[in-house]
TrEMBL record, chains A, B, C, D:
An MF annotation (GO) of this entry: transcription cis-regulatory region binding
Residue spans binding DNA: 34-53
Domain of life: Bacteria
Lineage per the UniProt record: Bacteria, Bacillati, Actinomycetota, Actinomycetes, Kitasatosporales
Record carries keyword DNA-binding: yes
PROSITE patterns recorded: HTH_TETR_2
Keyword Nuclease: no
The protein, known as: TetR/AcrR family transcriptional regulator
Alphabetized UniProt keyword annotations: DNA-binding
Amino acid sequence: MSHRKGGLQGERTCKLIRRALIELVEEKGFAEVTVGEIAARAPVNRATFYRYYRDKYALVEEIFQDVVSELSAGLGPTGQVATRERIVGWERLFEHVGRHHRLYAALLGRRGDPWFAARLRERCVELARDRLRTVQDAIPGAGRDAESDDLQLVLAANMILGAITWWLEHHRPRSAHDMAEAVVRFATQGYFDALGIGTAQPG
Amino acid sequence: MSHRKGGLQGERTCKLIRRALIELVEEKGFAEVTVGEIAARAPVNRATFYRYYRDKYALVEEIFQDVVSELSAGLGPTGQVATRERIVGWERLFEHVGRHHRLYAALLGRRGDPWFAARLRERCVELARDRLRTVQDAIPGAGRDAESDDLQLVLAANMILGAITWWLEHHRPRSAHDMAEAVVRFATQGYFDALGIGTAQPG
Amino acid sequence: MSHRKGGLQGERTCKLIRRALIELVEEKGFAEVTVGEIAARAPVNRATFYRYYRDKYALVEEIFQDVVSELSAGLGPTGQVATRERIVGWERLFEHVGRHHRLYAALLGRRGDPWFAARLRERCVELARDRLRTVQDAIPGAGRDAESDDLQLVLAANMILGAITWWLEHHRPRSAHDMAEAVVRFATQGYFDALGIGTAQPG
Amino acid sequence: MSHRKGGLQGERTCKLIRRALIELVEEKGFAEVTVGEIAARAPVNRATFYRYYRDKYALVEEIFQDVVSELSAGLGPTGQVATRERIVGWERLFEHVGRHHRLYAALLGRRGDPWFAARLRERCVELARDRLRTVQDAIPGAGRDAESDDLQLVLAANMILGAITWWLEHHRPRSAHDMAEAVVRFATQGYFDALGIGTAQPG
DNA sequence: ACGTAAGCGAGACGGTACGTCGCGTCTTACC
DNA sequence: GGTAAGACGCGACGTACCGTCTCGCTTACGT
């Protein structure tokens, strides 16, 4: 992504390679894809692949970075007014995922790469942390417990990842807006209230 | 898992192999472990490994099954009284994970196997579904929406998995009881209340 | 064939094993036969095979010895009157081979074992040497050149082996008597006379 | 033998491999030679061996083809004048074998490959058939019996093979010319005359 | 515009791991 | 004592990818 911008040809080759990877990951899962297959699909010589990427992980990393950049850009600045009702941020997230649904499905599914999921999770935690900080800064008196905060952020991030995964595995049966709502409901009211059995109690 | 119970020696060999895998997974992650290494570590001939397991996945599958069986047994019958305060079930879960923390850490970490995480997640969903059903059955009038329920269960399961992962990655800085409390708090009060900023609002 | 004569059972087992080998050699050639297959075909446990034979070579060796013993017995004492016309000895050889044609075909064919062919060739040379010595002893004045004799014996033995092989590979299109005649003709008159082109000359 | 002529390196590698095989076959016999050993001796990676040859048989086949080509070329056109005295053809054969004596000894000996011997025998039969045909064509009146001819050719070929084998196993105690003479004597005068005991008679 | 450096295909190569097969030895239990 | 059952170490097999490398061709860039 750096040394190769010089030539048009290199640009083209990288695009071919990336497209090939995505196709193949969709077809058989990241783990099963080999460099040889990517090259054959591109179609490009196997040695050419290695000219641009150290291995298939470097390639997926690049794709991931691009996608995350797009996501970050799409979410806009974090320090916005945040209200319980404003689920716009999450809605945008789901829209973004929906736009790249084949890629996300391939990479997050059970044939996906754990490493990719971890990266995405981290990214979600970061995003959530930014937003939380904004909120916390607005409440001067709030005590902070970094570790505790961290745990809750991780829980939230995992929940959101779970929502995305579920959504993709079920072929997006609901709108991005509905998903965002569901997530927010879970986050604000808790699980049982979200299920409408507020009087019940967990075992 | 079945055909080998005959011989005592076979039993012993399997144990050696399983121990070897766990050690190696802890050291370098599942993906990096090689059948040859497992055999060398056991110590057992590589061919002997193949006498009992088709590949390293079959081996980890067996280990997983055993662990899950132990977990299920440990959780006891599901149809128990469930109160918002009763977090015993989840506490037991964390205790179980803590008991096998090296294995879980190895298999759930980012060097772990996605497939293992998926299996465990499914298992959590099933457990949660059982419990939910018990609760719902106790509330005759409650309307049910299978899909919606499913989503919420998946969210909860992901949250719990996230808690476990976080706990293990940070070398279990809190007690199983505390973790269970944190999880339950998140599930019952939602994310913001759990953070003690009930008045704040998600972006 | 020595330590096992004790039990009837052992006798029986050896017979089964030998029969199995012969069948298999006929079906797929000696080289392709494995101990496991022999055992399975017998049917006998593989370990039992090893109780009696060190490997498949030891087994075929035993079979070979038996066959050669029968052959030697069939040929009778060597010091008989020998005339150019008396081809009875060679006829008996072909009859013997014909009687065991499946075994010989299996072991001498191109899927046979080189080692077996070599053994048989040696045996032929020995037989021929015996006969030659008898003849030579009857001619007191004949000069001897051991090396030269040896070469001619080997040539003769190879020729005979070739005749046997040809006969078997073509499914014995002629009688043993005809074969013996052909061999003797070649041996006594030479190749060109045998072909009826005595005036022609080799290139 | 065809697809690799492109690269110079490939050429070189094949040469190394072939040399290695020949060395090893001389040392321990074809059957005992392992692909791994060939590779180690070349020296070349085992995988590289498989790049060029399916297995050790394919390799020896190629070597054999080359040697036979050289032999055929060396023998020159077949339709030459052939006299009883002209043993030049056979002399050339022995010279050729002598030139490659280590290879032939390795492949024809009792540790050699039966398949190789069979191939060589066939080749000899073909060569002999060509020559015979030339001779027969020169004698219009000669009756022909294809089967009978075939048998005699096979006998001659086996005899020659036997001569070659004997020669090699005894480390070529005589000149190629002497060997050719011995063979021709056997072929033209028959076994007993060749032994100088024309009055004696076979049993 | 055109020579030159790049991008690229082709493919050889060493290397690691795979999963399979067959060997010959051994122990255990049965009859 | 002979046998079945089968575990075990061993070593070779042929295959699949890996990441590196060299070699020419061609092509599109820079001056």
